[in-house]
Every structure is written in structure tokens, then in C-alpha cells.
Amino acid sequence: MYAPAAHEPGIEFMRNQLSFAYGAVGLAAVVSGAFPALADSRMWVAVEDLRRFTCPSTQCGIVGRFFFRETLPVLETSNGWSRVSRQKAAGCFDGKSLYVESGPSDCTAENGIKQGKFSEWVRSKFLVEDRPSEPMEGPKKDHLGES
């Protein structure tokens, strides 16, 4: 089986073309907004108790909470929700996530768990840019994720 040497002119040309193509695709994706913004922005939790969900819906599992004045990286926003973590292992066993504290714990895409991983999501309206002096007023059950 023939394997070309790394120094052959054709191989070097192909490497340069691939490098250029990947760079152009990456630049086009960034310019078009195809990739979510990286966590340059941090937001403050403005309520006493903010639930973390496995997907951007109150119908998904709750995997914990954040507290007043914690700062979170906002990696992505979608329809009133903010993704505040990268993907992490869901600890799936017998089709259920061991990390879900309440709500649905199914290791399914509908619950935000894909290939055994999930990201944490919170309601965007309970995050603020500046350090809050007092907790935000509002219906408590809303930021707990019950409505």
C-alpha cells in the first residue's frame, strides 16, 4: 500500500487547501452567527433561588440551583433561556440521570440529555449584567421553574 511522504509537493498543497477551507468555514460560521457566543459575558443571579434545568424548558429535569449574586457564564441564549454550562456527563443509569434532583430524569433528547450529556439552562429574565443590590421581586414559583 502506497503512503505518500509528508514532504511531497501534492501533500503540502492539499494541507494548505484544507487549512484555508477550514479557516473560511469557521469565519463564515462566526460572521453568520452559526456558533453561539463564547462566555465573555458573565451575568449575576438576581433572585434568591434560581433552578438549573437540563434543557431550556420548565418541563425538563432540575439539576440544582444558583443563588442570589452568583455570577454565571452565559454561553448561549434562546427564547428567554440562557445556557450557563458546557456539556457534562448526565450520569445515566437504566435510562435515568442520577443528577436530576426533581422533574423528569429520563436520559432523552426531549429532556435535554443527548448521548449521555446535557448542559445547564436557566431563565434569562432572572440574570442581570450589574451586581444586584437586592433580590429581584417577582412570583417565586416562576424562577423555581414551576410556571
Describe the structure.
It is elongated and about 45 Å long. The chain contains two helices and twelve strands. The N and C termini lie far apart (64 Å). The chain folds into two domains: 1-35; 42-143, no CATH class. The chain has helices spanning 9-32, 140-143; strands spanning 42-45, 49-53, 62-67, 71-73, 76-78, 81-83, 88-89, 92-93, 96-97, 117-118, 121-123, 127-128. It is an alpha+beta fold and 147 residues long. Residues 18-35 have low confidence and may be disordered. The chain has a three-stranded antiparallel sheet, with no helix packed on it.
Which structural class matches the secondary elements? alpha+beta
Domain count:
2
Helices and strands, in order, run as HEEEEEEEEEEEEH
Unreliable segments (pLDDT under 50, ≥5 consecutive)?
A: 18-35
Terminal CA distance reads 64 Å
Q: Compute the number of helices.
A: 2
Helix content: 10-25%
Radius of gyration: 21 Å
General shape = elongated
How would a textbook summarize the main sheet?
Answer: 3 strands, antiparallel
How are the strands of the biggest sheet laid out side by side? 4-1-12
How many extended strands?
Answer: 12
Strand content: 25-35%
Q: Mean of residue pLDDT?
A: 80
